[in-house]
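Quick note —
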Amino acid sequence: MADTAHDDFDVDPPEGIGADESKMPLLEHLLELRQRLIYCFVALIVLFFVAYGFSEHIYAFLVQPLADIMHQSGGQRRLIYTALHEAFFTYLKVSFFAALFVSFPFIAMQFWAFVAPGLYKHEKRALLPFLAATPVLFFLGGALVYYFIFPMAWKFFLGFESAGVDGSLPIQLEAKVDQYLSLVMQLIFAFGLCFELPVVITLLARIGIVSSKGLREKRKYAVVIAFVAAAILTPPDVISQIGLAVPTILLYEISIWCARLMERKRGDDPDAVDDDRDDDEEDAKAPA
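Predicted structure written out below.
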């Protein structure tokens, strides 16, 4: 009898979790997490020093859209710095920004290596595409703002320059290097994070927190929130605000479509349920 009871409770660990991993104590998990964080920190520091060696070239790449617009306006144009340490710290920021951007795939790999042993096989298959899509979507957001928004926004701001009339002083842009870099980084991160919207909403739909029907019903609130977020995250100009809000709304629509695909895979599409319910009601009302 005792042997039978022992056999009943001797359950193998679920598929996707090894026997040692299922019995791993909390301390070992914390030690592994610390090791993964150390790897990420070391990679970030190494890439930071490498990027610092190319910081002038990286900054030249970031400032190129403004240089092109200034070249079209004619004259001898420049960027300035007014504090002795300003240019040095600007290059440090450029190096850290580049190191963080380049090291993101490695950081994602470390995250996956820490989480994957505790997942089932179907959970691994479900999470891996989202992990791969995250840097791609962030890169697309950064590319959009660099090649499309920057030229229009900088041209808009330079349009406020004035040559001066009737003896008045001219108004000419003398941009500071640190302020320009801060603005560029703010816009790149804002567009990059907004482009992660389909990944976040699809994951929420997969675990059942949101539904495609609920997302469609709240579409009008999403439009308002998109414009409010664009007004907060971008400079006070119409071009960059609309340039961020419109793609965000389009990504929201894509997210609704992705959420519906997740529901169909689970077999709980609310639209299909509603259609079946309407068909049943029509059948009940039909004359015998």
